[in-house]
Amino acid sequence: MLSARRKAIVTHVALGVALTIVAFFVARTIRSVLHEQPVMLVGENGMRHWEAARASFARGEGFPYWDRTTCGGGPGLADPESLMLSSLVAGLFDIHGDVMGRWYPTLAATLGILGVYVWCRKSLAIGRIGAFWAGVVFVASGFLSLQASQRMVFVSFMWIPWALTFARLGEKSLRASVLVGLVLALMVYEGGVLSMVQALLAILVVSAPRFFARDGGPRAVSKMLGVALVAFVLVAGVKLFPVLVQLFRWPTRAVPNDSLKWADFMPIFIDKERVEPLVGHRFGFSEYRAYVGPMVLGTAIAGAGISVILSPRRWGLVLLLVLGLSLTRGAYDQTAPFTLLFRGVGFSALAVPSRFVVLALLAIAAAGAIAIDTGLRLAAKQRGLAAVLIVVAAVGAWDCVVEAQKLMKVQGLEAGLPRPDPISRPYSLIDDPRRVQEFPARNVGTMLCERTLDAPHAEGLAIGPVPQARLDGPDVGALGPVHTTQNGYVFTATMSRQAVVHVNTSWDPDWSTNLGVIRAAQNGGLDLLLPAGSANVTLSYKPRGLLAGATATIVGLAGFLALLAWPWLARRGVAKRRSKIANATPAAPPSPA
What we know:
Blueprint: H1 4-30, H2 32-36, E1 39-41, H3 47-58, E2 66-67, E3 74-75, H4 84-92, H5 97-124, H6 128-140, H7 142-150, H8 160-170, H9 174-189, H10 193-211, H11 217-235, H12 237-249, H13 265-270, H14 294-309, H15 315-328, H16 337-345, H17 357-378, H18 383-409, E4 413-415, E5 428-430, H19 439-442, E6 444-446, E7 469-471, E8 477-479, E9 483-485, E10 488-495, E11 499-506, E12 511-513, E13 517-520, E14 525-530, E15 533-541, H20 546-584
Parallel strand pairs: 5-6
Antiparallel strand pairs: 1-4, 2-3, 7-11, 8-10, 9-10, 10-15, 11-14, 12-15, 13-14
Helix pairs in contact: 1-5, 1-6, 3-4, 3-5, 5-6, 5-8, 6-17, 6-18, 7-18, 8-9, 8-10, 9-10, 9-11, 10-15, 11-20, 12-20, 14-17, 14-18, 15-17
């Protein structure tokens, strides 16, 4: 017979497996259009990062520190929105972009549902039915289902509930505090600087009521935040340090003037047909669409009221809802939360206030779950009423799922990437900005530019199959064949006098050379001033902060592994000491007959 402890472990494991399976099939239902057809969604969806890594590793050139696909070249690893870990997986294991595009967001949606479930259970004391319902509503909401289909950096929003869960547990557990840092680091690795900022804000406002508690609240919350931030900086270092260097070099200073009225939120949450933009806004309505439906919204309003009236009062959840709505309103005033945040951070990905609606959606889902859970408890002895509540909740969640499917289908579909990969020719720039996801396999780039940094990019670079480096004039020397790699250029130069070599890529301060001096050209391109003589020239790109960041990451991961192993090592040490004591104790003399 199993002991009570083992029975509890088996029960929890079985429940976890069952929930994971159900969550996966719900996520698959939401994204069924991506499973039924081998297609690729239109738009920049992270696939070019995966394909760049896959092509670079296939050529034996390693991880793409430099992105040759757009802008005539630009930072790869140091781009805040580059997907580092998933690109590394795609490159090392040669996983095709179409496969990544279908499964990456689906698995993330599964984790999102489970994350909301665990957060509702551990932090908000909500029953299983309400907690799972909240996860489905959050992931299927109009904002995440649409945005996470177009741009993979929005997938990291689905990990915010895990950060909140570990933050709550971290007030009593050192390892849980470290896990908060790991979740934040994962967001940065996957291009989610925006989601990381939102996760930090969510942790602060949700923890605020406990910070002012008398029973050790300030100390516990402060310790959790301190440990989490240290773990985050260390583990995320290899991506975080180069990104910070770029953000300090090219800060975004212009504050957007987008602002909403409170009346605008109603169509944002319940209008499923609207296509025209909100009055006075730069973006179409799809950028603001966060459909949850009238049934879910009504349930959430009831749950928000319950949260401030009945015990236990969930003040942190109410603060999260207020924060999410206030930030989504945008720059409605000079002292608006969004205005103050944007001035403090200065990152262009924050420039669209509508993206902060994720925090409001998370609070709406949890508030609705509180209303459902309270109703089920009050109707515990009335099966008919309980059945009605479950049906209402199921209809509301299903409405979100159906609308999520429609939102993805109306975005338009086009054929998947060509298979097998096209024959790779010498690298060149082309003037066709379409289907950028195919460029890494074709070994081409474009001048089309949508940088997340305010860094200047080159103009007027050479288009077509031409040498990627040329001299300033015919009488100054000659260049041998130019071999273009993912992260650099190699060629021979025979110079009759000192002269400039124009390299067909954008300039960046982190380019280095074994010979001569690198400088920015007037058109934003890369110029190399070479001395007279013959030599082999190597240009290489390595983002500043990479070595220090990699060192920090190694130290952070080593510390985390040591923290995980410490309880086992401690128990083993105690067992050894007890064994030595037992062996050293002399045997008792035999008693006389």
